[in-house]
Amino acid sequence: MAKKRIRDKEVKFFVTAAELELIDKKAEVAELDRSKYCRQMTLDGLIIKQDFKQVDDLVYVVNKIGNNINQIARRANEVEYVSLDDIKYLKKQLEGIYSQIERFYDGG
C-alpha cells in the first residue's frame, strides 16, 4: 500500500534559467535539495522591505528650511538686518531636522 504524503498540496512558480541556477547553488550551500530549500525559505526566509517615507519627509523639511534661509538672506541683503525672530525661527526649523534624523536612525 502506498504511503500517504504529509505534504499533499503542490505549489508552482516560474523562474528563469539563471534564477533556477542560483536557487540550486543556494540549496547546495545549505545542504538541502531544491524542494526543501524553497520550502524553508518560503516559510522562514527573510524579506526586507525598505520604506523611504522618513527620508522623503526629511528631504521635504530640509528643502523647506533652505527656502526660508534664502528668504531671510534676501531680506538681510535688502535691509542689512536680520531679526532675532528670524534666527529663532531658523533654529526651530533646524531642531525639526535633527528630530527627524534621530527618528530615522532610531528606526522610526
Automatic annotation (TrEMBL):
A Pfam family that this protein carries is NikA-like
Source organism, top-level taxon: Bacteria
Task: From the Swiss-Prot or TrEMBL record, give the protein name.
Answer: Bacterial mobilisation domain-containing protein
Q: Which organism is it from?
A: Paenibacillus brasilensis
